[in-house]
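Researcher: Re-running this chain for the archive, since the previous output was lost when a drive failed. Same request as before.
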Amino acid sequence: MNKKANTILMIIFELLIVIAVVFSTSKVAYGYASSDKVLKINVAEDLAMMTNTLIGTHGDSKVEYPLDVEQFTFILSKGSITVLSAGDIAQTAEVRLFYLPKKYSATGTIENAKRVCLIKQGYLIELKNCQEVIPN
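Model: Regenerated structure tokens:
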């Protein structure tokens, strides 16, 4: 075989390898990004930040989480938010901590709620099902 044909075959082979690597990398990244674990982490982070925001606001207020989170169970306690999937054990739960000033308390447990709300009334922050708070 001549040198020019050999070079063309090497270029084609290298392109096929690059395409295969890009495809497999994007497949793994898509699988990771669409997993329940990532969504659970993001929801826990969001709710912890929303709680911190409510602490910093004056007066009573209500914040609704904008995503459908029906597949999760939430536990809000003094200083932490825990997010569990159906069938999760404590070791696979996502827990995010936040700081509550002395006068404040936080409570609430929700299972299978499409929408969740954080409600601040005085020094109490509650996690509730939004459909119970505001009927359709």
